[in-house]
Design goal:
single chain; alpha/beta; Aminopeptidase; Alpha-Beta Plaits; 2 domains; six-stranded mixed beta sheet; 12 helices; about 20% strand; globular
Length: about 450
């Protein structure tokens, strides 16, 4: 019987919240390389508090934490999470300190609370509830918790290649998820791939007075002209061969997405727009959302960016771009095509200073493990999951493909502002998500 486990979760909610606050207080910003070992060590202690056999695996980057409880069961459930977070800047846009968690109006605010420390703690807490109530786990448990997801999981392949035996399981819960704009719980069955590049232009030995713009070249203009060749005004990407390997949505995937209510009006209102790109709507909008690759400028800089004026002709300019990739697109191939595109258009002087990326991956919509997760959700949240065949976001799911079917569910919600100031989760989602994991464990024993 699972009732003692659920009762324990209810009675110890405050303790779980304190564990989450402690983890969120550690500013483990992967992009800066700060406090990674400190966060990893706390994750180790949390796992050990739930009687999970935890190990720290060194890599060339941040360590990977694994955890295991082997009860000799026929089935094994795995959790993939990460302890790193995005930078919190600009700090002035936060209503409270991003690394001093604060509860306001039923929400817990902190950097990383939704992505992905809340999920990490909720899953460990659910396991702890079994242990503390002497309730036998009907499945084996595994954890893989890394520290570089927010910067492309560059060194996770090191761990995977050395530990392929460990990542085999009958089902897995991926790092993110939550409720949609209508409050209904959602499940995501895949992730797009990504190619991230930084373009750089340097045309002068040093910055010059802007009066010399009549005779000296401008690095920012040069970069802007190069960027302008990537897309047309309809947002179509103009890189030769960019769309060649895009795998179309399957009939089962189309059937799944056509059932989804996109809540177009509410989403447009939330983002303060009158229409989506190219006035997309209905099924066409959904097909673009789930299966269109992208080319996005996520950062650009040059010259003086402070208050007031400074009449300068910058010597250098840079831009950060991310390309979201769908199934069968190869990031190495797209990188070559980006380089070829720049050269073809006369921008061989625009350097690709650095890059990172990985391919897309999915769990089939008709996989039986998806039904198991859905049953657990119905028992706890009282409604079927909204099934998304994939996410428009990216993650290293491809490393687990063929080893374990993964489904993303979690503690977040539409208003969590992941990667933005004032990131938060609903305490109620955090609470009930722990119960859903406990019920999933029970359901999986019959899978």
């Amino acid at each position: 019987m699972i009732e003692p486990v659920l009762d324990y979760i209810d009675e110890n909610l405050d303790d779980s919240i304190e564990d989450l606050k402690a983890l969120c207080r550690i500013p483990s910003v992967a992009a800066k390389g700060d406090h990674m070992v400190e966060a990893a060590q706390l994750v180790m202690r949390l796992l050990e508090s739930a009687d999970v056999d935890a190990s720290l695996h060194r890599t060339s980057g941040a360590p990977v934490i694994t955890g295991e409880i082997n009860v000799g069961a026929d089935k094994t459930l795995m959790f993939y999470d990460h302890y790193d977070v995005q930078p919190a800047e600009p700090f002035e846009l936060w209503d409270s300190d991003p690394f001093e968690p604060e509860i306001r109006d039923g929400r817990l605010y902190a950097r990383g609370v939704a992505d992905n420390k809340g999920d990490t703690v909720s899953r460990i807490s659910a396991i702890k509830a079994f242990i503390e109530t002497d309730t036998k786990l009907p499945v084996n448990i595994k954890f893989v918790i890394e520290g570089e997801e927010e910067i492309g999981s560059e060194h996770l392949p090191e761990f995977i290649n050395a530990n392929k035996h460990f990542i085999k399981a009958d089902g897995g819960i991926w790092e993110f998820g939550g409720s949609g704009i209508d409050g209904k719980q959602e499940a995501w069955l895949g992730l797009k791939g990504i190619l991230f590049v930084q373009l750089e232009v340097e045309l002068l030995s040093h910055d010059s007075h802007s009066s010399n713009a009549c005779v000296l070249p401008s690095a920012p203009y040069r970069l802007v002209w190069a960027l302008g060749t990537f897309k047309d005004k309809t947002d179509r990407i103009l890189i030769d061969g960019f769309y060649d390997d895009v795998r179309p949505l399957s009939a089962e995937e189309k059937e799944a997405i056509y059932k989804i209510d996109f809540h177009e009006g509410r989403v447009r209102k939330f983002f303060g727009i009158d229409s989506f790109l190219n006035s997309l709507s209905g099924d066409e909008l959904k097909e673009h959302y789930y299966n269109s690759p992208t080319c996005n400028i996520c950062g650009i800089g040059s010259g003086y960016l402070g208050a007031g004026s400074k009449t300068v002709l910058p010597a250098k300019a840079f831009a950060k771009l991310d390309f979201r990739l769908v199934e069968d697109m190869n990031p190495d191939d797209i990188l070559k095509k980006v380089r070829g595109h720049l050269d073809k258009h006369g921008f061989s002087d625009v350097k690709i200073a650095w890059h990172e990326g990985y391919p897309a991956a999915k769990t089939p919509v008709n996989h039986p493990f998806v039904e198991v997760v859905d049953r657990a959700n119905q028992r706890v949240f009282g409604h079927p999951l909204v099934i998304h065949p994939t996410s428009p976001g990216s993650g290293p799911l491809y490393l687990f493909k063929g080893h374990v079917p993964m489904v993303s569910i979690g503690v977040g919600d539409f208003y969590s502002r992941v990667h933005s100031p004032n990131e938060s989760i609903l305490i109620d989602n955090f609470h009930r998500s722990m119960k859903r994991i406990a019920v999933l464990i029970e359901e999986m024993s019959n899978y």
